[in-house]
Write a structure and sequence with these properties.
By secondary structure, the protein is α+β, with helices and mostly antiparallel strands. It has three helices and seven strands; from the N terminus they run H-H-H-E-E-E-E-E-E-E.
């Protein structure tokens, strides 16, 4: 009877898990999945920014619920400095709201509509940024 050696199978599994974990960390740190998805969706966002009537229609709708490319916009707002914000997700926990989305020419100080306690931008392409914002009640 031949003895089966399980060590190579375990070693292969450990290596595969380490590679998967490493790639996941790299993708999350670089925002690569969101950057790629936004690149696909960018023409839809830019057509709205370029058309004042479309922009007014989307930003004045409550609730927004507008699909732009791969994203569903749930809120839209403009600031006094010309920034346009499209929230594509939010997370609520008790009295804390965090919003996520994209901003075109954002105000460096944030937009009060999405909160002023926490505001972070990360560059995507040209004048487009991803943003996270927090609102405390």
């Amino acid at each position: 009877m031949k003895k089966i050696n399980f060590f190579p199978a375990i070693q292969t599994l450990v290596i595969a898990a380490a590679i998967t974990l490493g790639l996941t960390v790299i993708l999350l740190k670089t925002n690569l999945p969101q950057t790629i998805a936004f690149s696909v969706s960018r023409p839809a966002f830019e057509s709205v920014v370029a058309d004042v009537d479309k922009l007014n229609s989307i930003c004045n709708s409550k609730p927004v619920n507008q699909r732009l490319g791969l994203y569903r916009v749930i809120e839209c707002d403009r600031d006094s400095r010309g920034g346009i914000y499209f929230s594509t997700a939010n997370f609520r926990f008790i009295d804390i709201s965090d919003f996520y989305g994209f901003a075109y020419q954002p105000n460096p100080y944030g937009n009060y509509h999405f909160g002023s306690d926490i505001y972070k931008y990360y560059p995507l392409v040209d004048e487009w940024y991803g943003f996270t914002a927090g609102k405390r009640s």
